[in-house]
Structures are given as structure tokens and as C-alpha cells.
Amino acid sequence: MVVPRLVPVGTRACLVEVEDGPAAASLADWARRTGISAEEIVPAATTVLFDGVDLPGLEAALAGWTRGAVSEPGPAVTVPVTYDGPDLAAVAQHWRCTVEDVVRVHTSLELTAVFSGFAPGFSYLSGLPAERAVPRLATPRARVARGSVALADTWCGIYPSASPGGWLVIGSTDAVLWDADRDPPALLAPGTRVRFEEAG
Question: Residues in domain Carboxyltransferase (predicted)?
Fold first, then answer.
């Protein structure tokens, strides 16, 4: 396990660097459960931001953290996908398998929403094995359609609205990722367990 590295941000905030998204989720969960005093605890891809925190106290507390699973799994959501993305064949080539195998693997995984970013409703989903990591596009697209299901590195995400993007698009869904009138507005809030199924 990579030893967390603390990077002070001013006098009352700190970024704690960890090895990956699941480690960030684990640390954030542990910090909340153990009652570390902070105004905000925000996990990201390889960091956790502690805002409004006593830095020496945080450093001492982190000595007691051991990476593990989150204490209480979040709600489960199943997302139907039409596997028709423009990069589906490229992912199959990168994985050295067939398009059908890509669909089989993607629908066999349980992913977890670790953090949100980029756009309202866009959740970074962790759980793609390291050997399935894929590169981003060399040149991002000027427009990726709303509902596009895409991969980048070991992350999976769904574009909640049309926007530029450089992830490899393998399919599409009609699921509404962000609805300001819904509670919570994000369909895939951090902690949500996500499975994909092939749309009928």
C-alpha cells in the first residue's frame, strides 16, 4: 500500500494523496466514521481533500488508517446500455478480444461511483480491472452525445449532457444522470454501486 502523502493547501486544508480511487473512497469513508473534524471531506481520483481541518491532528490520525472496503455499501443502480459506441471496436482491439467479449466483461462488473466532477451528474466509476485500462483519445471529440457510456484508464463514466470529451465511447443509455428536481439530483451519487446491462 502506498503511504498517504499530505499536501497542505493554505493553513486549514490538506490534500491527502493515495494510490487510486478505491483508496480515496476508503480513506474518506474511514475519516467520516472515525469523526475526523473537518468541514468537508471530498474524495477524488487519487486524493482526498480535507477542508477546515487541524493539519497536525489530521497527520496524527492518519497513522491509524488501513485501506479497506467502505463500511456500508451504497445503493445499487442498474443502467441499461445499447452497445453501439464508435470506440467499441477499438476497445475490443485494445483488450485483444471480440466486441461481444467487451459487452460481456462490462456487464459482468459491479462498479462504484467514487466521486463526481467534470459536469453535474458525471460520476467516476471505479472497478475496471487494471488489465482493462484503455487510453483516452489522442484528440478529444468536440461533442460527445448525452448518455454516452465511456471508458478512460480504469474509469467508466456516462456523459450527463452533450459536451466535448476524450473518453472511449462504447455505448449509450437513456438513463437521466442529473435531475435538479430529484433527491439526490445525481443518479450515481458517490458510493452508488453500478451494474450495466445490455438494453433489450
Answer: 4-188
**Residue ranges of the domains in the chain?**
5-62, 76-198
**In this structure, are residues 85 and 171 in contact, taking their beta carbons and an 8 Å threshold?**
yes
Q: What percent of the chain has pLDDT over 90?
A: 60
pLDDT per residue as tens digits for the range 46-94: 899 999 998 888 888 888 888 876 666 789 999 999 999 999 999 999 9
Chain segment 10-20, per-residue pLDDT in tens: 888 999 999 88
Q: Does the domain at residues 5-62 carry the CATH identifier 3.40.30.10?
A: no
As a CATH number, domain 76-198 is 2.40.100.10
